[in-house]
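hi! just following up on the protien thing from before. the input was this:
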Amino acid sequence: MKRSLRRTVLSAIAVLPALGLFIGYSAAASASVPATAKAASVNKEAEAKAAAVAFVKTLKVGFHSKTHPLVRHDSSQVKALTQVTSTNWSGYADTGSGFSSVSATWKEPTPSCSGRSTALAAFWVGIDGYSSDSVEQDGTLIECYDRTAYQYTWWEMYPTNDVQVVGETAAAGDAITASVVRSGTSYKLTVTDATHTADSFSTTQTCSASSCVDSSAEWIAEAPTGSSGVEPLTDFGTWTASNAAVTEGSTSGSISSFTDDEITMIDNSGATKALPGALNGAGTGFSVTWKKAN
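and the predicted 3d structure came back as:
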C-alpha cells in the first residue's frame, strides 16, 4: 500500500514539469495575441496619418483666382465696410498698398469629422492674395481624413509651393499666434503654438517685388483647393480671431483702421458655407461660423 502510494505520487511529480511547460506556453501565446493586434493597430494609425499628411501637402491654400469671383454688395448695417462673397474664403481683408505685417491669435477650433471621410479647413493670416496672384501666409489646418481629425501648423508662399506642414500635433483648444512680417523682399512667417510648442516655427522666405506686391492683408478661414477643386469644408463650429493687427506703409492699426472687406463663403448656388460676424468695437477681432461643407 505504501509502495503503491509512492508510485502514484512520483508519477504525478513527473508530470508537473511538462504541465508547467504547457501552461507557460499557453500564457505566452495568449499574451502575444493582444501585443500583435496592438502593433498592427499602431501601424495602421501611422499609415493613415502618413497618408493624411501626404494629401495635405498637395493642397493650395490662399488660392483665390478669378474662377472664384467676388460679388460685391453694399451694406448699410456696417459703416465703412464692403461685404463680398467667395467660394473658398471667409473672414476679413484689408486692401491698399505697402502692407508689411499682419497678425492674429486664436484658439484652435474643435472639428466634427464623424459624418464625412474627407474635409478640410485652414485658418490663416497673410499678405497678398485678395487682389493679387501671390499669397505669403501661415496658420493652422484641420483635416478630416477617413473620419479622423488631424490638425497641423503650416506655411505657404503661394504659388511658389504647396502647403508646407511643420507641426503635426496641434489640437483643439491650442493657443495659436500667427504673423507675417515683411522687410523688403523678405517675409518672416511665424506660428506659435503655446500649448504644443513642437508645432511652433519661424521661417524667412523671399519674393521679388514684381511677384509679391503687398496690396492686401487677410484674416481667413478657408476651404483649401485640391486637384479637383475646392475641397469640402470641415465642420469647425466657430473660429474666432483676436488681437488682429496690421501695418500698411508707416501706419499700424487694426482691421478697421484701413479699407476692409468682410468675406462670406458661399457654394456655387449662393448658399452660405461659412459666415463671418461683425468686427468687435476695436476692430481687432471677429468670428467665422461654419454652415455647410459643400
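Residues 4 and 43 are 59 Å apart (CA to CA).
The two ends are 90 Å apart (CA to CA).
cheers
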